[in-house]
# Entry
Amino acid sequence: THKLNEVLEIADRVTVLRRGKYIATEPTAGATEQSLARFMVGRDVVLAVDKPPGTPAQPRLEVTDLVVHDDRGLEAVRGLSLTVRAGEIVGIAGVDGNGQAELIDAITGLRPPTSGTVTADGRDITGATPHAVLEAGVGHIPTDRQHRGLVMDFSLAENMVLHDFDKPPAARNGWMFPRRIEAAAAPLLDEFDVRGGGVRAHASSLSGGNQQKVIIAREVSRDPAVLVASQPTRGLDVGAIEYVHRRLVAERDEGRAILLVSLELEEVLSLADRILVIFEGRIVAEFAPGIDRERLGEAMLGVGA
# Structure
């Protein structure tokens, strides 16, 4: 497991591996999350998200009375409405299977809604194609990085231009320019600290954390007004989690509207400026980040809904 609290609660001893090598074995009785994280990453890790208060501005993502059906034809999202403003992170908390996946799909063009509207930066994107949603200024960090975020057999440079492969400087008049694509990708891989290969390395050769950095680099570099982040740290180690959290806060401070959907309650509590609770396809409560965990948990289970 990479969940430090799980190790400390259950194990008697913990052995840490890093890049395929044995690092240390410690009794959990004297270990802390911070000490284990140091072994795992090789340096001190900031486990708490250090962020100043947000300064929300105009609405950039507006979802109104949205109804979405799942693959079985059942109503998964039921008249849901929410707003995310520039300069804020809105977190959606809920038990898995309460409509989060269908909501994200409807916003990003991967599933047509039955009714309701979705607006990004003033543009109606209800039922639009994924390409049209991207062109409207919506970035998407998907839950499944390997099936929806990357083409694993493509190089990192090719993955960086998945959205804009047919536009200058990547292409002109139907012709693609590999050297220009690689030249544009190289500084982004450096800026986002992608390790494990150069622009020609295949995405499949990278660790999960570095694959996630490639996706974030691609989505952020397009300067989106709205960034939809669905379980952005799923399966990542503490070092990669620290990086993703810092980057999301930095993007918030750049004025982006960020919708964060995560099953990790601590992640939502740490990152979100506002917390919306989803239960059976509806938003049933809204809380500030300092909410009591017991009260939040009750709302997630539909108590009082």
